[in-house]
UniProtKB/TrEMBL annotation:
Family annotation (InterPro entries): Rieske_2Fe-2S, Rieske_2Fe-2S_sf
Keywords: 2Fe-2S, Iron, Iron-sulfur, Metal-binding
Coiled coil: none
PROSITE patterns, sorted: RIESKE
Residue span, Rieske domain: 9-105
Cofactor requirement: [2Fe-2S] cluster
SUPFAM superfamilies membership: ISP domain (SSF50022)
Pfam families documented for this protein: Rieske
GO molecular function terms noted in the UniProt entry: 2 iron, 2 sulfur cluster binding; metal ion binding
Origin species: Nitrososphaera gargensis (strain Ga9.2)
Identification of the protein by name: Rieske domain-containing protein
Keyword Signal: no
């Protein structure tokens, strides 16, 4: 896998996460270890893998359109920006995704 470049960390090959699915990855950021969920909707999106409600794994949640539902208690988040679809709902972190010519995200 390529080295970290320009504050991006390469977490997966494009083929590792099929369209309509997600996978969890751990990366090391400035504040330590970060658990992310990488989603493929024909375009890749990355959000925190940890639901703010009870810590459920969002990579295991049901995906409907661009909204993921936490498998533990049903909290919902937009995978494009980590925001809640409910007014006043809690948000989670989202992360930009980039691509390399060799097929890494």
């Amino acid at each position: 896998m390529p080295e970290n470049n320009n504050n991006f960390q390469y977490v997966s090959s494009v083929d590792e996460v099929s369209s309509g699915h997600s996978k969890a990855f751990s990366i090391t950021g400035e504040r330590g270890k970060i658990e992310i969920a990488l989603f493929n909707l024909g375009q890749f999106y990355a959000i925190s893998n940890i639901c703010v409600h009870k810590g459920g794994p969002l990579s295991k949640g049901a995906l409907e359109g661009d909204i993921v539902t936490c498998p533990w208690h049903g909290w919902k988040y937009f995978i494009k920006n980590g925001k809640s679809p409910h007014k006043g709902g809690d948000s989670i972190s989202s992360y930009p995704c980039g691509f390399l010519e060799d097929g890494h995200v």
